[in-house]
Fold this protein.
Amino acid sequence: MLLTVTSRKVLLPDFDLPRPATINVDLNTGKIIGVFLGYIGDEACKESRDSYFVDAGDKVVLPGLVDAHVHLEEPGNQDWEGFWTGTQAAAAGGVTTLIDMPVDSSPPTTTPRNLDIKRRSARGQCWVDVGFLGGAIPQNQAELGPLLSAGVRGFKCFLIDTGIEEFPCVSESDLHAHMSHLQNSLMIFHAEMQTASSPARHRLNPRSYQEFLSSRPKELEVDAITLIARLQAMYPSVSCHIAHLSAAAALPIIRAAKDRGSKISVETCFHYLCLSAEDIPDGATEYKCTPPIREDSNRNLLWDALVDGTIDCVISDHSPCLIEMKGLEHGDFMEAWGGISSLGLGLSLLWTEGRKRGISLGQIIHWMSVKTAELAGLSGTKGQLKVGHDGDLVIWDPEAEFKVSKEHLYFKNKLTPYEGMTLRGLVHKTFVRGRLAYDSALQDGFTGLQPSGELL
């Protein structure tokens, strides 16, 4: 069985702009077996029992996106999000691979047994491929090797209190114990850290966004990243990844570490690149996340760092909760749950904002597919349209505009700060390993389809 997709605009590896090309996917293996320059829409034969043909015409064919930082929160908190709704939201936005965070589910993914519980919960529910991170918490260093053997892509830890009893933060001494157990593995850090020199937190007006912003100052990120750079030098075989960088003040530390050859990588999020503190109304707790959204001048520096390669990739950090946990009626930033929901909107967000800044489609796919696949240890199978890779393809209209409304949101709790924004770029079809996972022409995009995502 063969899937053939042809278009006048296909984004191939190492090109910033699309070109006419045709992709063949073996549906028995799910792998790309042919990439040919040239559009064959006008001369192609009709489908047979052994082949399917998709003529994308002038729509753009992209490699499936890889979102390496998503909170799917099942089992235990499936009222917040879940594998079924979260992976549907991903497919509708052209994301064909997710990496699920170990925190927010109950139990968290901190032991092989807990990983098995999560995998059993996910089976049969995933519309896209899903991989898992393990959690590094105090006293679980003996679990790290078995978790790697069980298939986690790396580990996530917090340097600041999580507010989650089952997933406490780690100290520097904990990290020495953990990193000494890891060889050629990945440690991802929530890089905020309270120290004796951190500015004191004052609670004055809990509805004020500026008050909330001052409670999570840039110094928390700077101090954490200083520690991470030092630890990476002490444990050079451990790749250290900085999650959801918000504070541009930490960029000089990162640049210096990379210049020394340190194995440090960095991600930032759609909300830090597309939103600014100056535009957030008081009481609008749908904007609360940690680290927080900072000023527009900070946002511009993050964009500059993306372009020059200091920041490696862009992810969603989709972190939903029950709508009532955001406390919209009170607007108390100090009490509201922190996390922004955006799964399915990322490509449109980055394309809309990036075009204003002269960013090419090739750059966006580099940040959202190539580098995120690399981060997840999947660069041999994901993130590019090349022979031997998985047949993960997206048919996308870069010129289509839409106003974000709840009808565009497939995740479970339909609250996002992007509601009401006009975005450009719309996914028409998503294929995972050559199998149709989303089609905008279908009722609700999924009617008649079956989830075929695999657990990585």
Notes: The chain has a mean pLDDT of 95. DSSP finds eleven helices and 16 strands in the chain.
